């Protein structure tokens, strides 16, 4: 799910790992840790869909069995995105 919300950061982390640059890959992953966690605070894929909607990449509505992201969840995802440098 993180790769959908922060594709450039995930690609950079993977590139560093494949190149054998463990410290750079770990640094990128450290930036993403909060986002990894936040995107699974509520049932998947609700937080990811919310973040993508905030970015203007998809509509904000959802259909059952999905329900909207809670206000608390939105706060967590927003903060995690900011920490990772992902603009919503």
Descriptive report:
The protein is mainly α and 88 residues long. The chain has one domain. Helices cover 64% and strands 0% of the residues. It contains five helices and no strands. It has helices at 2-5, 7-18, 22-38, 46-54, 71-84. The protein is elongated.
Unreliable runs: none
N-end to C-end Cα span: 16 Å
Structural class of the helices, strands and pairings?
mainly alpha
The major pleated sheet works out as: none
Element pattern in H and E: HHHHH
Counted by DSSP, the helix tally is 5
Report the sheet-strand fraction.
Answer: under 5%
On the 0 to 100 scale, the average pLDDT is 96
The helical percent reads 55-70%
Count of DSSP strands: 0
**What shape does the CA trace take?**
elongated
What does the radius of gyration come to?
A: 14 Å
How many structural domains are formed by the residues?
1
Please outline the helices and strands:
Elements: H1 2-5, H2 7-18, H3 22-38, H4 46-54, H5 71-84
Helix pairs in contact: 2-3, 3-5
Quickly list its features.
about 90 residues; mainly alpha; about 0% strand; elongated
Q: What's this entry about, in short?
A:
This protein has 88 residues and is mostly helical.
């Amino acid at each position: 799910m993180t790769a959908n919300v922060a594709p450039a950061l995930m690609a950079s982390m993977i590139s560093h790992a494949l190149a054998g640059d463990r410290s750079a890959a770990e640094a990128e992953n450290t930036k993403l840790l909060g986002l990894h966690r936040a995107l699974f605070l509520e049932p998947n894929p609700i937080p990811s869909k919310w973040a993508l909607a905030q970015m203007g990449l998809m509509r904000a509505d959802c259909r059952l069995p999905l329900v909207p992201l809670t206000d608390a969840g939105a706060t967590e995802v927003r903060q995690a995105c900011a920490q990772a440098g992902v603009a919503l």
